[in-house]
Design brief:
The complex is a heterodimer of chains A (929) and B (302).
Chain A (H helix, E strand, L loop, with lengths): L37 H15 L7 H14 L11 H15 L6 E5 L6 E2 L10 H13 L5 E6 L1 H20 L3 H14 L9 H28 L16 H15 L4 H10 L12 H11 L6 H19 L4 H13 L7 H9 L4 H6 L2 H14 L3 H14 L4 H10 L2 H6 L1 H11 L6 H13 L9 H13 L4 H18 L2 H17 L8 H14 L12 H5 L5 H18 L8 H16 L7 H17 L6 H14 L4 H17 L7 H13 L6 H17 L3 H14 L6 E4 L2 E4 L1 H17 L11 H12 L7 H17 L14 H5 L3 H27 L3 H18 L5 H17 L5 H12 L3 H12 L1
Antiparallel strand pairs in A: 1-3, 2-3, 4-5
Chain B lengths: L2 E7 L5 E3 L3 E10 L3 E3 L2 E12 L14 E15 L2 E3 L2 E10 L15 E2 L3 E11 L8 E10 L11 E5 L1 H6 L11 E7 L3 E3 L4 E10 L3 E15 L4 E15 L7 E6 L10 E2 L3 E13 L4 E11 L3
Parallel strand pairs in B: 2-11, 14-21
Antiparallel strand pairs in B: 1-3, 3-8, 4-7, 5-6, 5-10, 9-10, 10-11, 12-13, 13-15, 15-18, 16-17, 16-20, 19-20, 20-21
The chains are: A mainly alpha (929), B mainly beta (302).
Chain lengths: 929, 302
Amino acid sequence: MPVYYKWTSVPKQKERHDYPSLDISNHPLKVEVLNMKLGANKSFIESLQKWSSPFEELDPLLRFEQLNVENDIGPVENNENTINYPKVWNAKRTGILNKYTTGEKLTIVSSFLPGGEKTLLRQVSNLNEKVKHRLEQLDDFDESSVRKTMGLSQQEFVTKIHMLDDEIKKAWDTEQRVKAFKIAIQCSKLLSDINVMQFYPSKFVLISDVLRNFGALVYDRLKKKSFGNADIKLQDIDSSTVPESARETCQNWMFKMASIRELLPRLYMEMSLLKCYAFISKSEIKPTIERLTRMIRGIGNPLVAIYVRVYLCNVASNLFGKESECYFNDNLKEFLEEYQQIFSQNMAKKFGTQLLTADQYLSLYIPAIDWLLYGTLNYTECKHTLLEDMLQKCETTENSELLLCCCVCAFDSTNVIKKSTALLEIIRNQSDHMVLLSQVLASVGEHLCHAENYCQLPSEALSQISWKIATNMKSTASFLQVLEPWLQFACTQLSTQHINMILRGTIRYMIKCGKPAEDYCLQIHSVIKRMLKSIPDVEEVFLMDAFMPLVELVQSSNARTIMAKTVLTIFFERYNSVQIEDHIVISSLMRLCCILHDSINAVTVEDENKACAELINKFIHAVSYQDDLEQQLNFYVECRSAFIKLDAVLIALVHAVNALAARADMSQGRWLQRACAAYCFVTVPSLQCPLTKAQLYLLGGQVALLNCCIGQAETNLKTLVGLIPEIPQFVQEDGQNKPTHDKVVGLLSNFLSTLLILPDNMDSNSKAYILSGFIKTMERIHWRKTDPLYYTLLLRTLDLLCQMTQETYAYHIDGVLSNDELYGSEEEFIETIENHATNICQELLVVLKSLGDAKETKKQYNLALELFWRIVRRGKLQETSMTSLATNLWALAQKIQDSNNKFARALLSVLEKDQSAACRRLLDKINLC
Amino acid sequence: MSASLTINLKRASKVYHEGEIIAGVVVVDTSTDLRHEGLTLTMEGSVNLQLSSKNTGIFDAFSNSIRPINLINTAIELASAGKIPVGVTEIPFEMPLVSRPNAVGPGLLETYHGVFVNVMYTLKCGMKRSFLNKPLNTSCQFFVQYKPQERAPPKPVRCEITPATLRAAGGGTRANMPAFQLYAEVDSTVCALDAPLTGKIRVDECSAPIKSIELQLVRLETCGHSEGYSKDATEIQNIQVGEGDVCRGRDIPLHMVLPRLFTCPTTATPHFKIEFELNIAVIFEDDYLVTENFPILLLRSR
């Protein structure tokens, strides 16, 4: 086997392939601009979720919660028209627990909890002192004496309540029914304690659960006693079929309950046991509910009273569903009769000593009134009349703000919108002393936001009135709370001028209020968010002169960044057209992007960078100066200087500039293209990742070549060659190390194809200057010989070299004089090329050997055949050295693996078809070995 | 070797009217065969009177309990001497509830548990056994009620309570009594025992905060005869109808379920009387108490 094989490429004689072709009007790879609108986006996500939902495993905690709900509601049939009250209440219940919390210390009084100091409750009683004393002494011996545990935190309190719940169940299961009853009574007694008022609604929710559980225990036992384990629904219980013993037990419970001394526990217990009346006489339940409704009047404390009403309505709705709505109505009426109790001196003193503000105090009533109103609304046929009645009541009674607030929240938008003028009138009249003013006004605003465009609304007047009321508010937080919905209303209903006026007014208010805007940063943020989301044409916001100052009202850099980010995000979500042309909009967006960019520093996390870069890129892509390409380039220059910290943005800029260069018209001369090329060439070095740099250099070179800027192309490609050693084996991507292998192969293959058309620099004295440089670099880098990257590139280079010897190259760029025409197959040039080819061929043989040494037989086999194939197709087989090399390679391949291999067989079959003499000869030789 | 004796009445409520037949079973549960000398069932009913220490004179001081008045006392033999096999044996029985022909008063009285007067009915079952074994005994209470009468026409009463009415009634009034005006109404002073007592109370005006409004059921028991008797009022139950400073000018319903056993129809016999009263009490924040008293007549009616 000769050690040295001289490579000779065969010049293809004007061999033209007629490939099937068809005329097309646009480029198949042209980027289709897809404008994903927010709406479309959403529905897409939704449909995704719809499809994926069956596969999704529910969060285990959530699943428990849902199971719970399902269990509770279980037997209630869900008809289309009826409302599932337990379900609705459950939702509200969670809301209450989350809203009404406290850091104050709580007290629990019970005889069934361990610990706590022993105290005796002094009951309201007119027993004479002597008897009382004796009883007290007796109590001391009684193990179930009442203990008071003080200083409980909220969490501890909740735990204790749950303990009591468990205690009831435990006592019940161990046949200690009276004990269970006693614990339940004690629980309900806790509800008469209104210390730490702000926790009261939550306390109510917790304790009402305990009581409901207790009621269920009694009911289930009676049911079992009456009907055994048969699953009988409440509706189907016929009291005449109940056996006497069960009825007797039930009666006993009722007598026991009726003799509870205190009113509140008696009411709560009777409500809890209400269901059980079914065992005595079902017809008694409804009159009992009515009686209880009236008896609640005896509760002097309005807060305690209204929650008793809520419990009554809950119990009723559990029993009767739709039919219970009249009780909601009754209870609401009762409540309205006692409405003034809420504002009594006594209560004012109480919440005053607990350091609650008036609006905090009133807000304790809101969930209860809401619930009563909710049922009443479903009860009432004509909601409009009801609202009118309510409003009239609001107008005539004192302190009507609480009622007003709840009404506005509870009624549906259509009705509220109809009465909006009247509502605002009432609010204006009472605005001076309303403590819930901002809530009321804000919720009216929320309703108005739902107004359809075609509604004949005196929008302007409404807006003005509310604005007047709002600006008179003392608290900035309330002002902003009100502003949010009303600004949305203005956005949907009023002209840009109006909105601008409101914005200006807001800035004025914020400056005048004398408090630092930083404190209200979150609220301003949500105001602006709302506005951007609701304004019909999002571009318009930048045309208002007050918008940008408002955005930048909060000066702290953190707040500004968040604001800028939000504005940009929403803007691009909602922006309809592909391009932004308006100069004002562009400069505003530019400013926001700058804010965003300036916020980035060394400690910013990568995700944050990515998000910022994405937004800025969107901006860069959207800006268009149409045919004014120079302006466009200037813009890119400006962007580069502004966003220098973000690599992703620079990359986008380079791409944009390349696109611009490709778009440029030759007729205006080449200065723009050169400028673009220079831009890219100058920008790329500031990037971090060598691989990206290399890609951009290649792209820059290609674009320059396309624009016939040969000098620029050459520089770019030359720099690329110089950069190759720096490309690392792995790059960080999404926090993972990814091999650059495939990318490098792709990139360099692309590079080699470009080299084919790059004309040689006539000033340099070496032929195929860049290519030679590339080959030298390849040698210089100490790649592992067995690395597929290495030998694939060698093969590709070999391909290029073969192609370069052709008289006419496979492709050209118009206006670029490639080497084929430049040298016209000059001998010296061909010789240089073939020299290179020989060297590379030699190198490949070395690789083959080292693959063999490394026992990489499969790779070795493939490489041998690849090289063999190149000799057959591209080499001059007439030359003996080529033929013998080919034969040797085939022999090597055969030695490793037989010719039945697919690849080898394919090669062989092609070879057999070839009629040329050289091929025949080669075939003969192959068959010999 | 153990045996137990229980009486199970057929009627779960254990409530019987005069003339009815009390039916049930005596259950003997034994782990071995049980030899006995006879099983008897006795029905007893009596009024127990007790004089309160407050009212008894020095002469009666040594014995403040009067001999109980027997209302009914009948006995039947359930089984003659013999053997009861191992396991659960149920011996059914029936006994007519009729008063002694020569009884005092109109006949049987309703069961009533009071402080000084108690009307009780019991069934006692006894098993006599051989010399070495203790006799087995068990008892079971049952309740007697009058047959319901026609419902009497309601007799509503209403009253107003102001500082002036209190003064007129000669009650102890305070110097600085708060100004108040209360209105109370009881739907009927003639009440059926199994229906709740109802009415309403309204605080029209009250300058001091109210702590509680309560309804107190009181029994008046009179024992003895013409020479010496005791009369005592004690509380049966106290029910709160208003808690805290209630809303002014609103009718607050009064509603009291009369407790069983502790109430009975208003009764008057030569030896004792049981009467009932209702107190409405309004307690102010400073524990000052204003009460109004209503005598009521309780009836067993439909």
